[in-house]
Amino acid sequence: MGRPDKKAKKRGIRRLFTWRKLLGTFLLLCLVGAGGLYTVYLLVPVPTANAEATMQSNIYTYSNGKILARTGEINREIVGLDKIPLPVQRAFVAAENKTFYKDNGVDLKGTTRAAWNTLTGKGKQGGSTITQQYVKNFYLSQDQTATRKLKEMIIAVKVDQEREKSEILAGYINTSYYGRSSYGIQAAARAYYGVDASRLTTAQGAYLASLLQAPNQYDWTSASATGRKLVEERWNYVLDNMVEMDWLPAAERAGLKFPVPRAPKPLPGMEGQTGYIVEAANQELMRQGVSEEDIKAGGWTITLNVDEQKQKDLVAAVDKQLEDKIDRKGDKKAATVQAGATSVDPRTGGVVAMYGGVGATEHWMSNATRRDYQPASTFKPIVLASAVDNGSTTQDGRKIGLGTVYDGTSKRKVVGSPIPFSPENEDDRSYGPVTVQKATNSSINSVYAQMIVDVGFDRTKKTALALGMKDGQDFGESPAMSLGTMGASTLDMAGVYATLDNHGKKVVPALVKSARHHDRQVDVVKQTGEQVISRKAADTVTKAMTGVVRNGSGARAAGDYEAAGKTGTSENNRSAWFVGYTPELVTAVALFGEDTSGRIAEQVTLTDSIEPGRANGGRFPALIWGEYTERALNGGSDAEFDLETGYSGGYDEPTRTASPTPSDEPTEEPTRATTTPPAPTTTAPTAPPTATTPPPTPTRETTTAPEPTEEPTREPTNTATIQPPDIELPGGDGSTPDRTRQPR
């Protein structure tokens, strides 16, 4: 029996798959496909205008079902193409579809590229012509489905055959969504520049054309630094295309400057806090995948986690402790004060109350969600959390805990850092050797600057992001990070502290409880979840921050409830914070200095804006926090923290060494580093106490309740008082062993 003839087998395969057969099969498939497409072409009619032309309302309700707001009135006015300047018309073509006047309504190459990018995970990308986008806006829906895309292409070809290019361009410009609840170029011209479309300049038209790619992200007044960079690049791209197509002289192009739009004005019915809450809810839905166009098209019933009574309590607290004490109309300095706050239920993650500012019709930018101000020393608890979670040690090998002793000397140069840093404590006050608990109570910058070096910048940032802070260009890894030099919102910080309150299990603050449309429902992101830091780390930080409220810089927040919190005052006093929590409620309160009198808002100092002196986190933010918390808890609460810190016993504060004449204020002002610091102490104080040191028998002295220690040093002479120093009795947290609640 011979071997099989392999060549004969190959010849058999070749006979079966000849090039003629393959070509014939391919041509047959093409004919079948073409026939199928032609059949679909014949069967798909050009429909009537979609429901967006008769827009539906969105309904936003409180958690109890009561309606907070109803939106959806169409903000659109159709204008003829003859009313739109020719350079503005051409800007839209240059931005979206340079072949518009030549194509047949469909760009197969662009559509194929967009489909491939979507399938390969590069994100949903455009590829549609102006005709296709007009068809989508006017005849179809915003659904991202293959069926809708196929219909869009077929109808676009038919529309291109049946209508003039000028009619299609006019329809596109008049039906597109530009952000700020504006449909069509007339509404957009008024919303962004306060003029009719007929008066738009070439530069302004190029900006409006640029907006269409990402209306929300590219709105200059609310865009992030990245968003502003991208829209400016897009604007330049549009103008360069106009030059390339001989629609704009190069000399004129060179003289054009970016046309910064005016601040937005909310629609009627969005007064007070309503506009802030509705916009924040919309932003949350967009982060979950619902497009802005889809939201604005209406038909949604959005149930919020906002508690109607707590919302009223928060507004009342800000009014009583801030607004009633300043004259915004008569005092230019007072007019620069902006308040923001977010309150979260740590058990569910629901945002139960939010304060965005004096009113959305007067100050559109929400102070609750903006991230352009520093959280300052409210970041310090994150450094401590990272230290405990990572089992970090000091430069000389001592494990970091509440009883660990650091050098609190002002302008002390940090040891072990590749980046030199020697931060000044507030009023340049030096404390000498202090425990971590004391450093937390009095917010001592020099201690936390050294601690973040001991922990590691990368580890600390990793902990911060895990707890809920957001990354950004200003979130650099350096010793200054310990003083909260990045940007953060009250919503961010409420989420971070809610996770600490929840024993290290992640809490994601959420405004939206549910969102239902007539044909679908949005799956809300899970608001509580994984253990992001150890319970020991979270509870240790909570224990430390109870000392801040009991007899530290946050004493003004104390009330008939157990509370933990942290004050913060940023560089140049541009922001002042108090973020704190009880076992049942987490609230972040912040004041920002902002001058809105010019065309572009500028950050300014809060000093001398509310009363003479610095506006520290331990004053008005803490007072607002305390007022709100008392109201929200119906006067108080018996709930107590259930802490598992792993510490037993207490510790003493070390004997204080000589220092400059002490001020009666704690350290808050960060970031100023001296170039000629005093010689650093690189070794630990002799025989430092640790958490295992047996405490002496506490001797309770009769004292009055300690007053807050975060007062500005420049007080009015007729109200100046001398406040008692911090009272440090033996106890694990530096407070009295048996806490007596302080009624408000």
Q: What does it look like?
A:
- This protein is of the alpha+beta class and 744 residues long.
- 34% of the residues lie in helices and 10% in strands.
- The strands form four sheets. Strands 4, 5, 12, 13, 14 and 15 form a six-stranded antiparallel β-sheet that branches. The chain has a five-stranded mixed β-sheet with strand order 2-1-3-9-10, with helices on one face.
- Strand 14 and strand 15 (602-603) form a beta hairpin.
- Helix 9 (202-211) crosses helix 10 and helix 15 (380-389) packs across helix 18.
- It starts with 5 loop residues before the first helix and ends in a 112-residue tail after the last helix.
- The model is unreliable at 36-46, 121-125, 657-667 and 669-744 (pLDDT under 50).
Structure characteristics:
744 residues, alpha+beta, six-stranded antiparallel beta sheet, five-stranded mixed beta sheet, 15 strands, 10% strand, elongated, disordered C terminus, Transglycosylase domain-containing protein, PCN-bd_Tpept
| Fraction in beta strands | 5-15%
Low-confidence stretches: 36-46, 121-125, 657-667, 669-744
- The biggest beta sheet, please? 6 strands, antiparallel
The tally of helices reads 21
- Amino-to-carboxy terminus distance: 106 Å
Oligomerization status of the protein chains = single chain
The share of residues in helices is 25-40%
**Count of distinct strands:** 15
Shape, per Cα inertia axes: elongated
**Integer average pLDDT:** 81
